[in-house]
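Problem: given the chain below (355 residues), write out its structure.
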Amino acid sequence: MSRILPMASSIRPSLTSLRFSGASSAYVACRKLTIPHVGTVIPQKHSFGLKASKLLRSGVNNIGVRASGNMAQASTTTEENVLDFVKQDKRRMLHVVYRVGDIDRTIKFYSECLGMKLLRKRDIPEERYTNAFLGYGPEDSHFVIELTYNYGVDKYDIGSGFGHFGIAVEDVTKTVELVRAKGGKVTREPGPVKGGKTVIAFVEDPDGYKFELLERGPTPEPLCQVMLRVGDLDRAIKFYEKAYGMELLRTRDNPEYKYTIAMMGYGPEDKSSVVELTYNYGVTEYDKGNAYAQIAIGTDDVYKTAEAIKLCGGKITREPGPLPGISTKITACLDPDGWKTVFVDNIDFLKELEE
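Solution.
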């Protein structure tokens, strides 16, 4: 049985900041995320010019000045190397993690209404939680969903920051009819997106998570979007480009409805999963609730990944290294808006799938 991504355990529902105990993995969403204060995106370098020129003129500590200059140059080289690594790194969105109140009910809804397959399920009674992985293809090549059920907790607060998941389907109307027939909630009837031609609809799963159904031809990645709201879109785009190595695929401003979106990802929207960042005019912070947890991304080097995140103003919440008891190397961080991401070593991830 694979030991990937344990979401941890015992929760005291009476606490406003739900606490998970047991597993020490960075995959564990430990507490309700808060939004950290983030200053400049890239740390400014120190200037040595004036002090160095004075020392050179006086002939004092000439060697020390040269050493300082060399150190500054080395630091710059390291930063360039790290950010260049991000551009060359083989990254892929692995899965998205969130909590549900009845895992069997959710599995049934996703299987019967959204056409997903249950890839694997594991129960960890000593930690009092159960995981289930669902998607449209194997985990070694597809973006999938990881559901977490914590014993005794049947409801979570989704908050206002999380937006929706996107599912590409060939016939939105038929999918909506199926969802309705199975007792699902339809919150937006099929029709063209405002200001465009793509046919969409919105439905909700039993826990209240929203799914946008997008009418699209056959695609290798039907689980195609995760939408998150951010307080500064330009800042978020720069961070996802530099720290996460994602490409800005497109932006769309909707002044009539007072919002702007940016699609970020590791490949084109019709063939890979993307993160949809949404900025609502004038809104800088959101309540993230305690339901949505994180996205996991594969990387060839968690250590260099952590360095890049720090250089770009992100906050490391778990230093890079192997998980206790297993060899899988990970690192976890928060983006400038407080959204959590876990980076997983690519080779270690594939080894765990083989167990």
